[in-house]
């Protein structure tokens, strides 16, 4: 037989406790109700037991005082002139009279013991009724000392609680002692032992009733709480499920409205909010579709006249040697701006495809080191013109990854172009590294850097950190935004670090396999670059 799995059971219990408001509410209510009922039941039991014992004790003390008078009267007639009654017969008669005068006739014992250290004849012997040592064993030395210390002729009684042996255990009892005088023999001690089993049974019955009533009350409270919480939690759970479906795109989902109570008011308010959100979402979606269609249509429509302009510009550019200097410069500017316009149209079309969700990833195994070297070589002349040295740092390892090379190359060229624009002629280092689950590329420059506010907006469309600076690479302001979309399409990260006067570092981290998951990047941000620090 397989051992019980305590950890799995405890884990399931914790999950149920955390996930279910109904379970927590019912459990807390039952626990608090149990504590309250327990405190009240204990107080009632102790109070009733104390009052019952006190009342019974007072009743038995009165009976003992009366029994003392009866025994004293019988002893006054014992051993007198012309009397034939013995002490033993007087004790038996006293026992019978005590039982007749007592309301507790079951388990009552009587013992008559001569007080020690008395002069004169010891006429009677010690008597216990019923006979045997059981009665005398219940009388403690402390009680006898208190009884013996009572002045002669005083009818004062003393008592003490005891346990009376009984079949299967013991029963509570009380021993009451007093003094009696036997003529011509001296002082004797009268002890009456009463069995309080009937009072204990009454108390036990009361405690059982309290226990059963308390358990029934706790069960009733738990059931009522469960029903009430279910009535409240049910609509809340329905509202949560409806909200999840709304978040998943099912905008027509609503909560049923029943009655005029608070829950119905909540349902009406929720449905009103859902109607408003649906209208806003539909309106925004329609507007977004119109904008996307407008950008796409404009980009396509501009391609035809732009192609014509580009062809005409190329003709003029090829014949610029025959033009005056001003006209030749105009032909060069026309060609440059037409090229930038074409790049802008291509970027706008790419962004419109991303916005429409119409981009698909076509991956293949790619050697990232070679891809980086090709990208660095393509911008080497531009970097040289700015005075920046390009370096590639590739420690070695798992460099091949399942990516779309065209998009990764575009990301890298955008990052290199930004680094050249803002690198201030200082070295630019490209890091390549990987591990078993991810590959990473980092482009580090030592230029002007960015503030924290600029880093928050660096991936926004058409945003520039410094609008007054001219772009050497002829960018459109969409490069980093497209790069971020390309990284997200691969399931990767594109992150930035920068500090004013210390330069910037962009890190691209991608999963090694298409659809793979990774938890950390193989490269730090920024990487530990001893080469750059040496140049500084």
What are the salient characteristics of this protein?
single chain, 536 residues, alpha+beta, Helix Hairpins, Heat Shock Protein 90, five-stranded antiparallel sheet, five-stranded mixed sheet, 14 helices, rod-shaped, disordered C terminus
Task: Describe the fold and architecture.
The chain is an alpha+beta fold. It folds into 3 domains: 237 residues, no CATH class; 105 residues, Helix Hairpins; 172 residues, Histidine kinase-like ATPase, C-terminal domain (Heat Shock Protein 90). The protein is 55% helix and 16% strand. It is built from 14 helices and 12 strands. The protein has a 5-stranded antiparallel beta sheet with strand order 2-1-5-4-3, with helices on both faces. A 5-stranded mixed beta sheet has the order 7-9-10-12-11. It has a two-stranded antiparallel sheet with strand order 6-8. The longest helix is centred in the middle third of the chain and has 57 residues. The two termini are 72 Å apart. The C terminus is likely disordered.
What's this model, at a glance?
With 536 residues, the protein is of the alpha+beta class. Helices cover 55% and strands 16% of the residues.
What's the total count of β strands? 12
Give the SSE order as H and E letters: HHHEEHHEEEHHHEHHEEHEEHHEEH
Task: Average the pLDDT over all residues and give the rounded result.
Answer: 78
Give the count of helical stretches.
14
Q: How many discrete structural domains?
A: 3
Could you give a short account of the major beta sheet? 5 strands, antiparallel
| Poorly predicted parts | 532-536
Q: How much beta, percentage-wise?
A: 15-25%
Gyration radius, rounded: 52 Å
* Strands ordered across the widest β-sheet: 2-1-5-4-3
